[in-house]
Description:
This protein is 22% helix and 35% strand. The chain is built from six helices and 14 strands. Helix 5 (249-261) crosses helix 6 (264-276). The model is unreliable at 208-215 (pLDDT under 50).
Amino acid sequence: MANLADYNIEEQYHAIVKKTERLSPDGTEEVREMILEVIEKEFQPEVDQSFGVLVAASGDFGNSYHHRLYSVADIPSNKKGKTRITLLVKRCSYVDDFSGELYEGVASNYLCDRKPGDEITITGPFDLPFKVPEDKNSNLILIGMGTGIAPFRAFIKHIYNDVKDWKGKIRLFYGARSGLELLYLNDKDGDLTNYYDQDTFKAFNALSPRPAWSDPIALDAAIEERAVEILEMLSQSNTYIYVAGYKKIKDNLDKAFTNIMGSKEKWGTRKAELIAGKKWAEVIY
Length: 285
């Protein structure tokens, strides 16, 4: 995986906030959906790409830029010759391990505080590792946590709206602390539920058993509950696994797939095959 420092930020563009809406309910972690209109016509992102947001920051060594990447969260649109892109952002904070002080995430708080009409500086677009397979018979296991739903939302909409006639299975596993926080899969903004009538698409939710206690979200359990189907998919050479979410998800996924495959060795071999065949990809943050 590339480091943020490896991304070119010399080429910069300007975008106007057209819409910003809180998707998560009050009393939960703030997640906003934002629609940006890019001023420069040269900026042409695709559904399998991300873009950067540059925030001016002052530090111990003078002024600098804080750079963070965000996945394209919907099929980019064009309005009067200008590209519109959608992003999901969660207002973040963290506790310093040494001082114990609470710090606000620079880019996330900056974005969550923007209003319609505000201008922000963006970079990119940059490729994501999630590619739509050329073979429409391919199977896709998509695993997302929180705002990790963003690239898969664009991905799924692109497959059924633009690629069409998809024959392989698409299985989306999505984790959130509560049903109200299942972005794009709830009563309020459930546009992914539009694809439930597709024979090839199914979505499975994994919720925390005690959301108020910040218990771990049991994505691994949700996957293991479909062990028979997942094992069948893993036995086929045209199955892809794409993962987007927090670092802590990785160990739990390895445990789940180990249990499904029957041993650590079998899963290790199968995962190595997926990676070698460019059929395993992850965006971890």
